[in-house]
Amino acid sequence: MRLLPLALLLILVMPTAARAACPPDGWTVEELEALRAGEFKLDDAARRDELALGLLDCLGDADPVLRDGTAFEGLSRWMRAKSLSPATLAALRERLQPELAAAAPGDALGVRQPFAALVMSEVARTDRVDPWLTPYQRAGLVNDAATYLSGVRDYRGFIDGQGWRHGVAHGSDVALQLVVNPALDRAQVDTLLAAVRSQVVAADGHAYIHGEPGRLARVVFFAAQRDLHDAAHWQAWLKDVAAPGPLEAWNAAFTSEAGLARLHDTRAFLQALLALTVRTDDAKLRERLQPAILAALEPIP
Question: What average pLDDT does this structure show over 7-34?
Fold first, then answer.
């Protein structure tokens, strides 16, 4: 079993309140801005690993540039370049995964949890590219990712001066990186698809305006690409997605704001999925999905 370096272990186990600091110790906002301008080039591997964990505390910062442009972008770039140590990747997972199941306390802005999910999508991607999670850890991540995505009720997307929250989209990103991982079996993929299904129509009469249907549709498209389900399965699954209930029929959607939102969200999801399917070069995938999508769209005005 690989042991964590002492500096990383201390960052990992310290209470949240004690370690919450953005910018991280030893860094100024100006230095982080310079690092971002230099495309996050940091040759000292130990310092890079330490900063990667320190940047987690910036995921809840009120400054959207610091939160998104610096913390997320830096972590994403380093993970995609395979520039972080295995111990650091493990520590990132240990810190972030609990936040999928329960929002961190004190996040009045509501930005911390969706950005924890977004960074977790990059952690999940590292395991897809070069597997390092145990089957038990991976199964736990599947369950926590599904819990997060299905539980999103803060539907704020982009707000001037505040930046992004985008919980459904970020939850979809985690689900996407998981469903394309060949280590997941059909039951695990179905768990994530059920979470996607739960958010095709947003709760409380919300109508998506920030591209969420497209992000949800990507999960379904790439799950279908795994060829774990036949055409009959997708026909039944999409027929359920397209059902108007609790409306008696889709024409009833035009009599209420909630009905119109349901109509909008359902149609937008199916159209986004259709666009992905039409553009693919995978003829067998088109055969599995396209007739089912068109059948699902047909009764929707």
Answer: 70
